[in-house]
Protein 1
Amino acid sequence: MATQHSRSAARLMMAPAVILLLGWMLVPLTMTLFFSFKKYLPMRGDSLERGLDWVGFANYTRFIGSSSFWPSVQSTLIIVGGVLVITVILGVLLAILLDQPFWGQGVVRILVIAPFFVMPTVSALVWKNMFMDPVNGILAHLWRFFGAEPVSWLSDASVQSIILIVSWQWLPFATLILLTAIQSLDSEQLEAAEMDGANPLARFFFIVLPHLSRAITIVILIQTIFLLSIFAEIFVTTGGSFGTRTLTYLIFQRVVDSQNIGLGSAGGVYAIILANIIAIFLMRIVGKNLDA
Amino acid sequence: MARAVTTRRKILTTAVAWTIGLLIFFPIYWTILTSFKSEAQAINDPPLFFFFDWTLENYSVVQDRSDYMRFLWNSVILAGGSTIIGVLVGVPAAWSMAFVPSKRTKDILLWMLSTKMLPAVGVLYPISLLFVQFGLLDTRIGLIMVLMLINLPIIVWMLYTYFKEIPVDILEAARMDGASLRQEILFVLTPMAVPGIASTMLLNFILAWNEAFWTLNLTAANAGPLTAFIASYSSPEGLFFAKLSAASTMAIAPILILGWFSQKQLVRGLTFGAVK
């Protein structure tokens, strides 16, 4: 049905977006790859004008070999994994709850979704100061009220605290998507199961959960991509200390604090590879949906 | 057939749902409340939940001390500018992919999605270097471009899923009646596409407003938006809970209100149409 004319017009209309994104992807990526094979320490006199020394894979091996690499991988896995577990489990439960009939559904839904719209620097600072401050924070008040010693959250339980803050931000996202998925569940199927004598637990495990599996996969994949690059939450709370230095933050420190561009770029390439592995899975699911 | 629910069960659900809802919302409520307290009241033990001397002083102090309005204005320009440019670039692309699909359309869409997954920190130095080279560091135009580019995949995807829902028959009918491509777009497509475009802009504005990697790393005093303004409170001097709260409230209030209108679009936009 499309004529030759409309085809070339279509290509022309697509061009700006494609060219812009292509440039946005290729130019910095090429530069990162280039720097990752170079010794580049601007503070020690290396400069682009005078040319950089080729060091082969030295930056790559040094990045992995450094004593902070594996701890950073561990922190990343714990934080991303912790947030995923919390948001998915609570998200499923909340979605089921919000799907039940009750008074004020609209208002409660708004309350639950609200944290997602709070900018990361605000939520991190509000939690850090007004909740987790060991002297004046709400949690310290609460602990003292029950006669317990207030906890220095961000130094003594730093990883858990970051997980809590980030989970609070992402729970609305998981809930909202799972709720949307739950609402597309055929209620007659549930009723039939109920009449056949399936108890609520059986209905959950054999009908609701299978129905949600696709949505849960999507939530996990999308959140993983965003969570791997959380930055502001760590930047304004612990600054990467107390075991909260994630891979993203380690690369950031190599580039910005220690000004070792070569090393940081090698780290960046690792991060890009990691993100792409997860992206492949996500794209497969999304791609399947495109054919429908 | 709607499922019959006993009143007792509904009361119980209501109680549980409201408790959880208020608990999740509490940090935001507490921030807003604290912004109306004096600094001494803000750290009072036990915490003051309602009965205190309400004051607007913090708001004027925040404005006087750190020129809040400039940051707010930067946020509006950055989020607004990147959204408008993004839609100008995204609408033609999404339109052509939705209505004149080719064999490669799917690949292009997925490739666009993949650029969204590029970890920002991996290209931090190259982008900073380019910004320095082109004199874009700490300028609004530089950041508008970056924010536009990181959100362009979402814009194209969202628009694409909306445009896909417009029945093609109507376009064919218009074509039969002798409408040119331009007329087709202007009089047939646009009225049907406006709601989708508006939702896309809304979600994109929110995402750009809250973006906190590039805005923290590529700005200083000049072009810094509210994310950077708030981050400057991370090393406090003296009592500051009430002032932090006032600044935070001002930074999140506009987007909370916009966000509540965009719940549905949020799902579609952030799952790239995989969940509707």
Protein 2
Amino acid sequence: MNILANIISLTIVFAVPLMLVALGGMYSEHSGVINLALEGIMVIGALCACFTLQAFDRNGMGKVHPQLCMLIAIIVAAVTGTLFSLLLAFAAINLKADQTIGGTALNTFAPAFAVVVTWAVQGQGLTTIQIPSWIRITQESFGLEQGKGFWDMLIFKYFYLTTPIAIVLFFAAWILMYKTKFGLRLRACGEHPQAADSVGINVYRMRYAGVLISGCLGGIGGIAYTIAVGSGFSSSVGGYGFLALAVMIFGNWKPVQILGSAVFFALFKVIAAYNSSIPFLPKFEGMKDQSSLYQMLPYIVTMIVLIFTSKHSQAPKAEGIPYDKGSR
Amino acid sequence: MKVKKPLAENQMFISVLASVISIIAGLLFGSVLLFILNPSKAGIGMGAMLTTGFSSLDQFGKVLYQSAPLMLCGLSVGFAFKTGMFNIGATGQYTIGAFCALYGAIALQLPWWVCLLLSLIGGAVWGIFPGLFKALFNVNEVITSIMFNWIGMYLVNLLLANMPVMLASAWGASNSDRTAALAQANPGAVIPKGGLDKLFGNSSWINISVFVAIIVAIICWFILEKTTFGYELKACGYNKEASRYAGISANRNIVFSMIIAGALSGLGGGLYYLAGTIQYVLEKKTLAMGFNGIPVALLANSNPIGTIFSSLFISYIQVGGSAMQPNFSSESTDIIIAVIIYLAAFALLMKGVITGLLKKSMKNKDDKEAKA
């Protein structure tokens, strides 16, 4: 039973960054901007949050108020992610640049910047920022006793502040997208910006909002990923930004389905990492490196799904096309 | 008599000027960043980046060697651009190409030129997917390419792990995380040096790959500029609907252009790993070489001949970047490359500004002449 608890809790902790970043991508694409830079935004968010955590660890505040410090680190990640996404927003919206190329530029920039800065701050060769251990929420945080039962494993083995925050942000996303004026206007800008403009919606402003929200969520996703991996931050988020794009497409650009596909993708990641210790998986006799097989599967499944859904794709119609007031 | 076109209307000149401006902006940004991080070492660092490539024949040999795969990845991205496709999947095609070349070299014991053909075919096969998915199902090629980058990388890892003969451990070395060194496994698969090593002071890097790449670049230029097929490809890139109206099958051209783009990247992988100096290491991240084809193509404005020069430049600062250690990380060059890509994203705007400025200055000149 403990292994089941382990798998479930690991799946949750890996689904959190995937869902957050995919939701971020969803905001951006519904506003009409393809955010290919999510990977880079995650890296920048994680970098700044990790430096924040490290600083709290050094001055001793971290051990006294662990969750407060964690919250500050998450806010730092959100803010830096938002600031970084401004670069994409400016290029894509004001300068009407090619969005995929702009995103590629940010993706090239972020990991390089992270390595160079980490190198400069920590000294040569030290490219991994260690994460302090006090950030985990334990039974003690609630005044409970430390146990080794099923529920203890399930809830507390990998319990971080990012998980409840992700849950809140998920409900916020659903309400914002479908129950508010803002959501309706945002989606209008991604479907038919000219029509939106004609009824008085400021398309540029809505697109800025979409990209900046995606930057905010991407930044939080970055620190959530780093925590989930647990071995410190070494200037990379392992392609999770791109995987989140797949999650978003697989989730049909809708919050609830994105949650489902995030869990699905995370489960495959967990199986890939722990396939040898999971008893009920098929064992391919004589095959080495089965983790690669399981890592590959979500991408293949996404492609197959794309083939079948492309005719009725829910993708925003105007995504990727710069909005030009003058064009018809 | 041929009338000389005014500078402001010379597209080639404006493109080159825009690229030079991007490069200068990238270098400036990089210098400022290094200065902020470590003022005392910034000068040494930038100096290392900008001079190492010419500092010795050995290093210059390395510049030429690395420029070959970069050139092919750049050609690949550029070729797809011409048909209106963004081939962000060059790294996947490159990985598959590298695998096919190494498979031919180590497992099948084939000579180098057959291995290069295999890499070409492998890359082409990987390029079919984004093209077909776009043509048949209208799936965005960027998404397909990204998915197939990861599928390709994991597939190659999976295949290599299950082919013990491919790994270095089967050929007298102790490590099983990389492919066998070609010097032991099959010296006949190493791309010949063609006497260039003597010219370059026994540089271990140099071989004929850069010339192969230049020949391929010229072929690409020929296809795009001098054949009907190339004209149709470009027509699709300019305006898909109009070309369809003119009787050009857009879908067919999309698939063909992606196959060619894939083949180019694949050949790049073959050229890089058949040099005998590098072994393929099983990693959990996609290879950077394919992504670096993007700035190469952007700097060259997708022009195959321009790609020769832009790949030499990117290779030059990359070789310089590794000499910046231990003061700075070699990734500093990637920051400069990122700025170049970012500026290229709004190249049209920049070109508009340059044209405007040139026209203005010329008008001023004309006015002055008129007054005089």
Protein 3
Amino acid sequence: MSRVVIDGLGKTYANGVEAVKNISIDIADGELVVVVGPSGCGKSTLLRMIAGLESITSGDLWIKDQRVNDREPAYRDIAMVFQNYALYPHMTVFDNMAYGLKNRKLAKAEIEKRVKEAAKTLELSQLLDRKPGQLSGGQRQRVAMGRAIVRKPEVFLFDEPLSNLDARLRGQMRLEIKKLQRRLKTTAIYVTHDQIEAMTLADRLIVMNNGMPEQIGTPDELYSNPSSLFVAGFLGSPSINLLKATQLADGIALGHSQIATLSGKLDGDSAILGIRAEDLRLCSKEDADLILSVELVERLGSELLAVGVVKGSNERLSVRLDKSAQIDEGHELPLEINRDHWHWFDADTGLRNVDCYREAISEAVI
Amino acid sequence: MEDAFGLSSEFVGLRNFTDVLEDPEYVSTVLFTLFFSALVTFFSLSLALLLAVQVNEVLTGAGVYKTFLMWAYAIAPPAAGLVGSLLFSPLMGDLYNGINALGFDFNHTRDGSDAIFVVVLISVWKQLSINFIFFLSGLQGIPASVQEAARIDCPGSIKRFWTVTFPLLAPTTFFLLVINTTYAFFETFGVIDLTTRGGPAGSTTTLVYKIYQDGFLGADLGGSAAQSVILMLFVICLTIIQFRYVDKKVHY
Amino acid sequence: MSKPWTRTVIRHGILIMGTLIMVLPLWIALMSSTHTPETLFKEGLQFFPGGFGWETYKAILGGNDDLSTPAWRMLWNSLVLGLGFAIGKIIISTIAAYALVYFRFPLATPLFWMIFATLLLPLEVRIIPSYEVVAQLELLNSYAGLIIPLIASATGTFFFRQFYRSVPGELMEAARMDGAGPVRFFIDILLPLSSTMLAAIFIIMFVVGWNQYLWPLLMTTDTDYYTVVIGIRQMFQTINEGGDLPQFNIAFGLTILATIPPVLVVVIFQRMFIKGLVETEK
């Protein structure tokens, strides 16, 4: 039904700046797609192009099998929740939600019915006569959502809708948005710079960088098989540990000052190895790939995060450990790399390349 | 240049300008205008600041004082001029006789400096209100925490005013300097026209008043237009200074 | 350091002096207007009410030898000028500011600024060309000729431009999403948002319009179009020409009548007026 097809969409400004380059994705009906990336990566521009607030300079946009490139925002059958909510300060909550419907010349009774319904869903029924100035941040957020819901659009567009809320409320609203979207089964496109928000909400993710999609896929796919150093570095907290690998005569040196040595062979002179914090494991001194001097321990309750430098170097790594681990600042931890979940990247292109590394045959036999 | 009936006019290049600038009467008008604006600006600003500071400090009656000190904003300059000229008029006597009884030989319709005194006085009176409003809101805009910090750091209230409060009022003061100058140049027309009519002997003629006299009473449209252009250049300079200075220097 | 109470006394002393200076001239004018011209001529200024007030104001409003136009007519003209100026100014400046802030014409921007630079100049410096234009359009001695050239100035536009620029762009985008076109957005969102500012500017502009002097002086030769401020000038001329007994009471009374409406407006809407004045002029 409300399938959204983005076909080679691009935006070049009059001054020649290319904000968005050649993005294509086929969004299924009812799917929630999150666009994530650092600020300035073009994600907001992409959303605004879909909304019709920015013109499309190349490619095609199809909503519900209709090409909508040249349609005014109001006629694209979309609704948008803005970063700062963009509530009309002089109108009551009711009027804020009803304004769009009034402009579409809906019958009064129908408007009232829809607004009341949305207010009930969002627990705003008691607040319909208030003005935005009298509401808390979370309530304003709900009104902004309500304004989108009452229109019964084919597509919801969210532009960093939670970035103005405090951490607690953000977590709570994130859940509610997801629940609501599931219930209404409306296709949604959600823009954020927060990778946790992106990972938890998305059916599928688009990671953007410099106006281009770096990778498109489910959160799991992107986390476990990042297609580039950028994606690997962007998703996950703490950030993935990256080490330079150099081919030596008798093995592979890790790090700039050879903090560890691996057996095996690189395809070429060098590569980059990415290891997530949870893929470094405590082990006995004999099996250790490297020894970490702990500088800082963050106890997060459910788990424990240790940050330190590899002994004898200034290569900094972070390790995720069980909450029961008895470690403290100043301890030295023997660590082993989980070779099943490591990520090899080409040193020049930064792209994922599993063929970078080949285990030595003798080791493979053992 | 136009003939007496405005029937023909010839192109005279810059002659209107050179004529104007070489005219000693014009030069003395320029000097008077500058002198007059300086006096009006200085006195109306300092008196308004004095009053605004007092209103800001008193606990009782501030609202009443405020209303009575600001209402003159609404009075038309000519109305102020008429009342003022009647107050000082030899015809009405009271003030006139009072001042002369003190030993001054006062008559603002005959003596140039007396006329200047009256025009300045009425102009200051009329402008006091708007300056007062701006200074008061400027004072009220200074955060209480800053005032409190200053009370701890500096015990003397007068020194505190000049070292903390007054510098913080700088944007207001600068803005008021500009609008008071504009006021003295332009809006005092009504005051002058109803007290001295630029006289006696041109001693209270401002640039705008001269444009009016030459252009509309004297029918020298060319010369008057040239004066307008000169005045316009002055206003443009003033506006540029205002935008430059206000935007850059006096911001915190 | 002086004691707190002496300081308070000094403060109140200064303020009472200031208040007296601001109030006394008008008080004297009001009181003097209730005396006969003979009393005023013989005894000078009056500080207390006399018994001639009714006659004075009846003469002013109804017509008098010294006044070419009855004051009610002049008050009406002033009202038309004040309201016309305020309404016209608000209409022009809100629309112009809207165009400036929300519409992009790359080539027109410098043009806009040129127009606005000229309009920034006070009427006084462009009074001769303005007069010529109005004279040639045969608008001398008409309300249109009186009001329109005064409205043509950019000052109000700048107030509103400043305000519109502070309105978040998202609001306009949200309105576009809600199906509001440029006109709807202006009427439904922008104008209601600026309502307090509109009111404040209306008050200021009314006072400014009512008090206009130089332009009406040049424009109105037909006494039917005299405003009350011009009436004051005429009164002044009559008194200075000498002749019979100068009608001081009429002069004072007319001043009072010219002063009451704008003063009332300013005092009644004091809060709004101050807010408008301070916020817009900066």
